[in-house]
Structure to design on (866 residues):
């Protein structure tokens, strides 16, 4: 016979395993799904508290909200203000939370809570959509204008780019022995950040204020720090006007950028906003649920299904593991089971009932069924009606056991209803025929084999890691599929055959010995 | 000299002794396994290899019903003039059973078989009559009601694979040749010959024992006698995989067995290849006093125990047949002559 080349088959197997593993790896990297269960991820919980005194008129409070700040990813946000309507609006590309109320009087407090995850994205750049233009600058009197021009000239001559110009300016304004011009400017404009921004704009380079929050664990009543962003012709670069530091520091969350005010309150006065923050951990899986809805990989995420379907999938996706165990035990080990995949169904039932209780009730139900079946065989029923009778009897047995268990105070007795009753009825029928034809020994061998495979499959399936991997990385079942198909090509001896044919080897050995003697 | 060695290390000797004694059980357990390489050297065919390389490769699924259904096999055998016990009638539905006695009255001895029964399941053999009663092969008398119930169960699919509805065939009983009388206890001796691509590759005689309850089934305790393909002489005999020299019940020496007209047996078996088109089959043949060798049934998944009975593996012979040129031997006669030359006791 021509032997068909095995190469295409092994290519398919290799591809399946590879696709499964690579997809799992990509999703692990891209979506940060952990490979092990129970992984916790640190998040920052930030609470903005807005206080103001309402004057009795309709109130509208607007707070600038962070919008994809570099180095952080928003995970959740919620607003809490009793009696206020809340919505998030985007104006001129700025995200703002808007609280409104028809009538309010006296001190009002509004909370806004948000959670952020640290992300290491080096490539986070604040690139504006359009070309920003420098703001028009007005100075208070010509002396200031001249001083500004001179400070700028000094910095200009020492610099080559918008970044270096900004650095030089900050250095000039921060030096210990301030020159006259700088001193004059600082006396008129004490906020260094606003001054730097004004000077840069004066130089014809777009600059804007930015409000950042320095994150430190368990801090309360924190305020936003005013920083300045300079446009270098390509992106906005952040500068700290006090330290001259360039770029976004690791612990800084950029809350708000642009010239708009952070907080507007109409219908109230003495408004202020303060921030509290806490570093906490949440299960990594919860983060995934809330994120990556748009990712191409999220198509494979079962988390996006309704909870009811999810729990069904949780069980379904364990089936390939059970199938793998059955295939292994039958092809490689050579264990006899009654019914090919009955052990998987029993193992699934064990998952619901817990092992010891499951095994005890399964053996009890089958044993009682066998006793009843012996009586049925004397009634001389047709096969179909006999099986149907068994199904009904199995339901009676299970109900009786549940009730007895309940009366005795075991609530767990109820869980045996998870057993697949039709399958059990068929098992009883088959074992009964087996008993009549091959004797009780074969029943023990096959029944024990089925139970052993079921227990093994159960042991594997109840491992939290296995459940986690099959549920969160359904594509890993392709690897299980590849293994099952690979075993389908195994033509070597089963482990049981190493014993089965031992007699042959012994016989041959003794013959050889006899031959050698004579 | 060897005595001096433990004397030089007296302190360790008593300690190591129990330590060595403990693994003895493990060692015995370990020795109860055979190395897979040893099996391979002996050319033993394993279950996975049989299923994958032979059954799946040479037996087209569509042809399985020809052998799984005894009625089809029988009709086919009659068409190809392969000798087989005469078919009396077929019972197709439950209502025919109620007046089955009309048909059975005319028969003295007969066998009731479910068409799709496997492994000898559901076969009822009636060897004679005593008044209203029927006598089973074991000597037990049964009534017509018992036969009715048996047929009803068989029709409902009790003995068929997967419990599918079945039909019952009633056929002529084999008149056993006296030659085997002293070799078989209470039952039907038959000869199983494995046919691969039309070439007989291995044969064994199965003798019922008291232990096997009159059934010629090796794992139920029947004696398997390996037969030399070249001569039809007994090679080796086993019961429960252990070598035996005499039949455990009749005490006849098994090595004296020699099947008469051996070539005819092989021919009958080899012709089943053309009949079914299946590449790898087991043929079960019996000897009728009057009509000679008869085909009883075919099996598309013949078991592996024949290797134990013969004391040799099937693989070398199967691979040899695979290596032969296609259409090297066109007729069953040519194939049988070829194997009788090639597969000798000392040869392949």
């Amino acid at each position: 016979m021509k032997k068909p080349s095995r190469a295409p088959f092994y290519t398919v197997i290799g591809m399946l395993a590879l696709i499964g593993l690579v997809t799992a790896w990509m999703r692990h990297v891209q979506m940060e799904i952990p490979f092990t269960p129970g992984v916790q991820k640190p998040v920052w919980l930030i609470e903005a508290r807005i206080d103001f005194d309402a004057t009795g008129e309709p109130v509208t409070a607007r707070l600038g909200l962070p919008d994809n700040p570099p180095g952080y990813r928003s995970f959740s946000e919620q607003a809490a203000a009793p009696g206020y309507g809340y919505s998030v609006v985007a104006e001129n590309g700025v995200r703002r939370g808007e609280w409104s109320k028809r009538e309010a009087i006296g001190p009002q407090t509004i909370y806004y809570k948000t959670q952020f995850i640290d992300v290491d994205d080096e490539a986070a750049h604040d690139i504006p959509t359009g070309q920003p233009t420098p703001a028009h600058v007005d100075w208070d009197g010509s002396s200031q204008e001249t001083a500004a021009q001179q400070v700028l000239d000094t910095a200009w001559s020492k610099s080559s780019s918008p970044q270096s110009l900004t650095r030089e300016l900050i250095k000039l304004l921060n030096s210990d022995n301030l020159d006259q011009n700088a001193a004059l400017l600082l006396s008129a404009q004490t906020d260094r950040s606003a001054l730097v921004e004004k000077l840069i704009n004066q130089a014809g380079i777009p600059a804007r204020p930015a409000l950042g929050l320095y994150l430190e664990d368990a801090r309360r009543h924190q305020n936003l720090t005013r920083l300045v962003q300079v446009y270098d012709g390509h992106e906005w670069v952040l500068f700290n006007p006090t330290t001259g530091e360039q770029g976004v520091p690791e612990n800084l969350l950029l809350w708000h950028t642009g010239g708009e005010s952070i907080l507007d309150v109409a219908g109230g006065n003495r408004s202020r906003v303060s921030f509290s923050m806490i570093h906490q951990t949440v299960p990594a899986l919860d983060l995934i649920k809330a994120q990556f809805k748009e990712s191409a990989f999220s198509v494979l995420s079962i988390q996006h299904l309704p909870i009811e379907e999810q729990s069904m999938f949780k069980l379904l996706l364990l089936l390939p593991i059970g199938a793998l165990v059955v295939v292994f035990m039958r092809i490689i080990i050579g264990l006899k089971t009654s019914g090919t995949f009955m052990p998987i169904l029993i193992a699934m039932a064990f998952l619901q009932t817990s092992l010891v209780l499951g095994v005890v009730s399964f053996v009890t139900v089958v044993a009682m069924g066998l006793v009843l079946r012996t009586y049925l065989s004397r009634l001389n029923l047709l096969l179909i009606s006999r099986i149907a009778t068994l199904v009904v009897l199995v339901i009676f047995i299970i109900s009786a056991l549940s009730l007895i268990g309940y009366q005795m105070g075991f609530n767990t007795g109820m869980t045996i209803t998870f057993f697949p009753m039709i399958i059990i009825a068929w098992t009883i029928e088959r074992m009964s025929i087996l008993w009549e034809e091959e004797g009780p020994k074969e029943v023990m061998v096959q029944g024990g084999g089925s139970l052993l495979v079921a227990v093994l499959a159960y042991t594997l399936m109840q491992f939290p890691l296995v459940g986690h991997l099959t549920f969160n990385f359904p594509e890993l079942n392709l690897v299980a599929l590849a293994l099952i198909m690979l075993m389908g090509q195994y033509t070597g001896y089963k482990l049981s055959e190493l014993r089965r044919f031992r007699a042959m080897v012994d016989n041959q050995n003794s013959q050889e010995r006899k031959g050698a003697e004579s | 000299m060897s005595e001096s060695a433990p004397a030089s290390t007296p302190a360790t000797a008593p300690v190591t002794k129990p330590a060595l004694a403990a693994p003895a059980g493990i060692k015995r357990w370990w020795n109860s396994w055979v190395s897979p390489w040893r099996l391979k050297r002996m050319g033993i065919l394993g279950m996975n290899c049989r299923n994958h390389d032979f059954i799946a490769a040479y037996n087209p699924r569509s042809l399985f019903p020809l052998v799984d259904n005894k009625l089809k096999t029988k009709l086919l055998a009659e068409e190809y003039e392969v000798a087989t016990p005469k078919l009396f009638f077929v019972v197709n539905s439950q209502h025919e059973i109620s007046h089955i006695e009309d048909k059975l009255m005319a028969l003295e001895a007969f066998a009731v078989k479910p068409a799709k029964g496997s492994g000898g399941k559901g076969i009822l053999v009636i060897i004679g009559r005593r008044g209203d009663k029927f006598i089973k092969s074991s000597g037990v008398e049964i009534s017509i009601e018992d036969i009715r119930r048996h047929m009803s169960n068989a029709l409902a699919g009790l003995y068929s694979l997967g419990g599918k509805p079945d039909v019952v065939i009633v056929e002529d009983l084999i008149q056993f040749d006296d030659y085997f009388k002293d070799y078989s206890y209470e039952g039907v001796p038959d000869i199983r010959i494995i046919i691969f691509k039309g070439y007989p590759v291995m044969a064994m005689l199965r003798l019922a024992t008291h232990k096997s309850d009159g059934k010629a089934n090796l794992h139920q305790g029947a004696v398997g006698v390996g037969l030399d393909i070249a001569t039809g002489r007994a090679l080796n005999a086993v019961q429960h995989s252990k070598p035996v020299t005499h039949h455990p019940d009749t005490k006849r020496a098994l090595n004296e067995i020699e099947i008469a007209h051996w070539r005819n047996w092989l021919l009958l078996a080899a012709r089943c290849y053309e009949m079914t088109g299946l590449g790898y089959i087991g043929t079960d043949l019996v000897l009728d006093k009057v009509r000679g060798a008869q085909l009883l049934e075919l099996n598309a998944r013949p078991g592996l125990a024949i290797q134990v009975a013969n004391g040799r593996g099937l693989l070398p012979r199967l691979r040899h047949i695979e290596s032969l040129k296609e259409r090297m031997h066109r007729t069953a006669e040519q194939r049988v002559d070829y194997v009788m030359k090639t597969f000798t006791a000392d040869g392949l």
User: Anything to note?
Assistant: Chain A touches chain B at residues 1, 331, 334, 380, 382-384, 387, 433, 437-438, 489-494, 497-505, 507-508, 510-511 (CB under 8 Å). The radius of gyration of chain A is 37 Å. The CA atoms of residues 20 and 478 of chain A lie 5 Å apart.
